Amino acid sequence: MKALVAYFSASGVTKKVAERLKSAVGADIFEITPETPYTAADIRWTNPFARCNKEKMGKKDVPVSGRVENMSDYDLIYLGFPIWYNGAPNVVLTFLKGYDLSGKRIALFATSGGSGISKTPEKLKPYLSPDAKIIGAKLFSPGVDEAQLKSWADSL
User: Which portions of the chain are predicted below pLDDT 70?
Assistant: First the structure.
C-alpha cells in the first residue's frame, strides 16, 4: 500500500503535523499551495473582508500551484488542513476537485484554534469521486508526536 500525506498549511502548524505524520507512516508528502500565497492579513478571519472570508463565503475555487503527477499510484491519502468555518479551506476543495480519487481511502487530519472536525467529512464528500472513502477524521494539537500519529494511522 502506498500512502501520500497531502496538506495545506496557512501558518505552519498543519505543516509540522504533516511532516511528523509522513515520518510516522513512511508516506510521500505534497504541500497544497495556492497559486497566490496567503499573507498574514489574508488569513485574519476576524476581519470580514479578509481573503479567507471572501473565499469561504463566496464559495470560490482557489487555484492550486503544482500537481501530484502520480496520484494513481496512491491507495491511501492522508489529507491535512486547518479547520476554517468548521470545514476545509477552499484551496483544499479545489485540490480535491482536480483529481480522480476513485477507489482511494482518505484519512482527514486537521489542526484548529477552536473549531472541531466532526462536520468536515460530510462537507468534503461532494468534492470526492463517488467511490472514494473517508476512513477517519481527527483533530490534532500542534504538539502531537510521531507515536500518537502512528497509533492513529494504525487504527484506521
Answer: none
Q: What is the pLDDT of residue 116?
A: 78
Q: For residue 6, what are the CA distances in angstroms to 14, 41, 45, 105, 149? A: 11, 25, 23, 13, 15
What's the confidence (pLDDT) of residue 28?
A: 98
**pLDDT for 150:** 97
pTM of the predicted protein model: 0.92
* Structural domain span for residue 109: 3-155
25 near 153, Cβ under 8 Å? yes
Domain count, the chain: 1
Contact by Cβ (8 Å): 94, 67 = no
DSSP track, 99-152: S--TT-EEEEEEE-SS--STTHHHHHGGGS-TT-EEEEEEE--TT--HHHHHHH
Contacts of 137 (CB under 8 A, 6+ apart): 107, 108, 109, 110, 117, 118, 120, 121
In CATH, what number is assigned to the domain containing residue 24? 3.40.50.360
